[in-house]
Write a structure and sequence with these properties.
mainly beta; 6-stranded mixed β-sheet; elongated
Amino acid sequence: MKKIIRIGILLVSSIVYSQVGINTERPKSTLTVNGSYAGDYKSVAVNTNLTIDDQFVNVVGALSAVTITLPDAVVADVVNDSFYGRVYYIKNTSSFDVTIKGNGTQLLQAWPTDTPNTIVLKSGQSVMVVKNSNNIATAPLWEIFQQNSFTNNNTFDVNAIKSFRAVVPASQFIIDGGSRNIMNGKLAANITTTSRQSAYELSSTTEKAKFIVINGLRMDFLSIGGGQSNASPKFFNTTNSTITYDISTLSTNDRYIDGVNTNIVGNYYSFIIDGDDNIAVDLNRAEYINVMLTFPNGEWYNCTWHATRDATNYYFYFTAQRLN
């Protein structure tokens, strides 16, 4: 037996199988909506604890890093109080990192063997978090179903390889100009400025979007300065937070193996990657370096910087592969 209830322009139907339709008389799923759908939306700029009333959360206008804490996902009455399948959509539109955190020490299922208490959204990234069917504090309680970035080349799957070639006018690259933040040591306090040009800044808007970014660190080149033709491989911290990483150069004329616990302040170019901070790029020579890059969370990347030039342009080649 089918009952039809008309409310305004909505036509809601139910059958013995508890199928419900909105704007349709013949729902083919438990719930069929023939029209738009709305959930709660809020913008936040400070640390926030999510509740039953939240669904879409956008972090905007923050003055520092923000933490979004998920609800307590362990309940005493799993029949009446559990909320398996609850979904939160969280986006970071701020310029700072946003940390998604389980309540207390509760865990998130990020990857098959990775169940952290937190994950970090860089600027421009978003995530969908779903409550799973676990109800034990020592088991992961939330699933990371979808995490993405609106910035090209900013996220890596395990074993993924990314590459990019930047073409920069030689006449512009070798001429000093402007002021850029740069690290002159491994500590966050070791900061200064430089007038050297960067490959990224001399690229078009379209090409800028193709530069490789690894956990907030953009692979780039700075000029050596003073009209010299050589180039310096660099990272640039695209976030407003300090990033710590370890680095060692495996193949170069002057290897660099002392990059443990290297810190780079937000919106700064890195300390040296090549041992003498100098890759030869004159008209008769090309050089590259191969680098191992690791982060405190255990992620491990193999990166290369390669540079050549002719009378007109510099050609900068970047590759990166996530190894775990």
